[in-house]
Design a protein that fits this description.
This protein has no helices and eight strands. The chain has about 110 residues and is mostly beta strands. A four-stranded antiparallel sheet has the order 1-2-3-4, with no helix packed on it. It has a four-stranded antiparallel sheet with strand order 5-6-7-8, with no helix packed on it.
């Protein structure tokens, strides 16, 4: 039986402007990763506490985000420079940056 979605809470994102693109979730860690395309950032939210806990800035059109809870890695594809950045999911430091193609929209991982 399907049910309609219900709004549980709103989490403000002060300073984030423009279009938001894709999302990914870390269910065990209770985090939501949001590609803020026009803001050039990935926003990291703590869904339990209802607040932004971190952000990755300076990205050129972040579009695809994917969190792999098995490896603890966050994958971010950026369309502006055609790169895939692979971050450590805890420290949010870049681990790898394989070159993709200019204007990429998504990458199957």
């Amino acid at each position: 039986m399907s049910r309609p979605l219900l709004l549980e809470k709103e989490i403000p994102l002060p300073g984030v402007e423009g279009r938001i693109d894709h999302f990914s979730v870390d269910v065990p860690g209770q985090r939501l990763f949001i590609a803020a395309l026009e803001n050039g950032s990935v926003e990291i939210l703590d869904t339990r506490r209802g607040e932004r806990t971190a952000e990755i800035k300076g990205l050129e059109e972040p579009q695809g985000v994917y969190y792999d809870f098995k490896t603890g890695r966050l994958y971010v594809a950026t369309g502006g420079d055609g790169k895939l950045r692979i971050y450590d999911g805890k420290s949010l430091t870049v681990q790898e940056t394989p070159r993709l193609w200019r204007g990429c929209r998504q990458r199957s991982i």
